[in-house]
Amino acid sequence: MMTPWFAPILWDGSYNIDILNAQFHQRHVRIGLTVFAIKKYTVFMKTFIETAEKFFMVGYKVNYYVFTDRVKEMPNITLADGRQLVVLEVPSYKRWQEVSMRRMEMIRDNSSKRFINEVDYLVCVDVDIKFTDEVGVEILSDVFGTLHPGYFRAPREHFTYERRKASAAYIPPDEGDFYYAGGYFGGTVEEVYMLTSFCHSEMMTDKGNNIEAIWHDESYLNKYFLYHKPTKVLSPEYLWDDNIEVPEVLKRRRSVIVPKNYNAVRNR
Ligand SMILES: CC(=O)N[C@H]1[C@@H](OP(=O)(O)OP(=O)(O)OC[C@H]2O[C@@H](n3ccc(=O)[nH]c3=O)[C@H](O)[C@@H]2O)O[C@H](CO)[C@H](O)[C@@H]1O
Ligand SMILES: [Mn+2]
């Protein structure tokens, strides 16, 4: 329930949402949810938004920041009061790995340009997920990461960190706290700016040296969290994979990964 640096690990039952709601409503907190739907990944948008309307930060001011190269394919969904969809047109990249990695640069650029004036916190997630249970202000903190569903009970040796010293994402074998998922992190706009800025510049350093970390943006994110510890850690309740058998400790699944046909959506 707590990391060795005293950051709460969020499991169901570890907090009282009424107390937290009272505090966050008092602050009139505004939340930005960033998501990327580039090329064929626009197919995930409808379910993403519809389920977020049902479960994500209900009752709060929410801006969905949708980065896409296919503005015309954005679904037309009526949103609840106080919620709006902001479509940001961006270029696409050829390789899916690069599409995934470039999210860091685009979140960084928009954090200083736009998000800082519009919201207090950012939550940055993959588009191929659906919300299946409540996600509220309990997740908000200066900077947070999420335990990857595939590794939360695994020993450190099994974490798929970047292990080549030549990469800026390298993590020595005797270091590393958790294996964090690339597809679910956030924090204040200032903290997300620092995180994305670090990840993007380390990726560019590697690009210059013709090396790319094993799990792309996820590897650089893990490197960042090693030396800039998250102030909250979300349990895999927040990002579950239904291909994994549900363990006893997992009482709720707040969002789950939507199965995808890799060949069909990642059109090489
Ligand atoms: C759940 C989770 O932790 N997912 C991470 C995982 O793989 P995933 O297999 O979940 O990666 P993915 O295919 O979902 O790609 C990541 C994200 O990039 C966007 N996208 C990608 C390709 C494309 O053509 N169009 C597009 O919009 C989209 O928002 C997608 O959700 O590892 C990736 C790096 O290898 C990223 O760190 C993902 O965040
Ligand atoms: Mn994904």
From TrEMBL:
Record InterPro entries: Glyco_trans_6, Nucleotide-diphossugar_trans
Its placement in the membrane is given as: Single-pass type II membrane protein
Give the cofactors, semicolon-separated: Mn(2+)
Q: Which residues bind UDP-N-acetyl-alpha-D-galactosamine?
A: 36-38, 41, 126-128
Q: Name one Pfam family in it.
A: Glyco_transf_6
Task: Name its GO BP terms in alphabetical order.
Answer: carbohydrate metabolic process
What are the binding positions for an alpha-L-fucosyl-(1->2)-beta-D-galactosyl derivative in this chain?
148, 160, 218, 241
Domain of life (superkingdom): Eukaryota
Q: How is the cofactor bound?
A: Binds 1 Mn(2+) ion per subunit.
Q: Which GO terms describe its cellular component?
A: Golgi apparatus; membrane; vesicle
**Which UniProt keyword terms apply here?**
Glycosyltransferase, Manganese, Membrane, Metal-binding, Signal-anchor, Transferase, Transmembrane, Transmembrane helix
Q: Where in the cell is it found?
A: Membrane
Family according to the record: Belongs to the glycosyltransferase 6 family.
Task: Return the protein name.
Answer: Uncharacterized protein
Natural source organism: Eleutherodactylus coqui (Puerto Rican coqui)
